[in-house]
Amino acid sequence: MCSYCGCDSIEVIGRFMGEHEEIVNATGRMRAAVRSANPQAVEDARSEVSALLWPHTRAEEAGLFRVMAREELYADHIATLCGEHQNLDELLAVVTPGDDEAMLRFNDALRTHIDKEDNGLFPAAAVALDGAAWLEVHATTPHSHDGVVHVHASTGHGREAQADEGVA
């Protein structure tokens, strides 16, 4: 987690960084399950990682990534990060009991991806986006209060932004 620039004090960035910590911790539990070679433990751990990871990535893409991708300077990098989200899905799907190599591939890809966000994109966003852009990011990033998932405003495209069920 970035601790040098203060970007984590921006609500959505602080949230995403906190979620990164939760995902990494759950991945550690999955690593232990893989080493145990217990199929049910691996499935339970994979479900826990998935339940944290996919709402998180959808929220990033719906708000911050969408707003930042409008700027040509960030568009290619955002596209790469979205591709990495899909790759993480594929890597997670092949983690099986006793397969330390598949677990290592997932873990390495996850940590590299998180580093790109925490130490690259998020500090860049803190500098690049203005107040109106941050209001839009906040308004279009799915989140929940007491388990009710919602967004605060329309996407500006004539229809209300829809949050996927389970987005935190």
Number of domains: 1
Unreliable stretches: 155-168
Helix/strand-derived class? mainly alpha
Name the overall outline. elongated
Count of helical stretches: 5
The main sheet comes to: 2 strands, antiparallel
User: How many strands appear in the DSSP assignment?
Assistant: 2
First-residue to last-residue Cα separation: 20 Å
Strand content range: under 5%
Whole-number average pLDDT?
86
Q: What is the H/E order?
A: HHHHHEE
Spatial ordering of strands, largest sheet? 1-2
Q: Helical content, roughly? A: 55-70%
Rg (CA only): 17 Å
Walk me through the structure.
This protein is mainly alpha-helical and 168 residues long. The chain has helices at residues 11-36, 39-68, 72-93, 100-128, 131-140, and strands spanning 143-145, 148-150. It has one domain (7-142). The chain has five helices and two strands. The protein has a two-stranded antiparallel sheet with strand order 1-2. Helix 1 (11-36) packs antiparallel against helix 2 (39-68), helix 1 (11-36) runs antiparallel to helix 4 (100-128) and helix 2 packs antiparallel against helix 3. The relative contact order is 0.16.
